[in-house]
Amino acid sequence: QVQLVESGGDLVQDGGSLRLSCAASVSILSFNVMGWYRQAPGKQREFVATINRAGAMDYADSVKGRFTISRDNTKNTVYLQMDNLNPEDTAIYYCKARDIVWRQYWGQGTQVTVSS
Length: 116
What we know:
7-stranded mixed β-sheet, 54% strand
């Protein structure tokens, strides 16, 4: 059974940095795409960034230039480096994976709080 486990969420100050990790219970090469989404209180879950098996990346406009998604196939882990954080980035961050038959898997989320 596929499991995704996020970690790295924390409380940081405005302008700070965090690195989130998403560890998969299976080889991440079995997924076509992996990515990060977030959900702030009272808002819908939104796209943050994705990376596909070829390494191509995509970002939401709100995080371009500040966030970087990467993957380590040897560790079956995807990362989200978040720099220059601001209070609008406060949310629960979820990892998502999509396999070759379009099944989707979600992690349980990790809380990121940015204080002003």
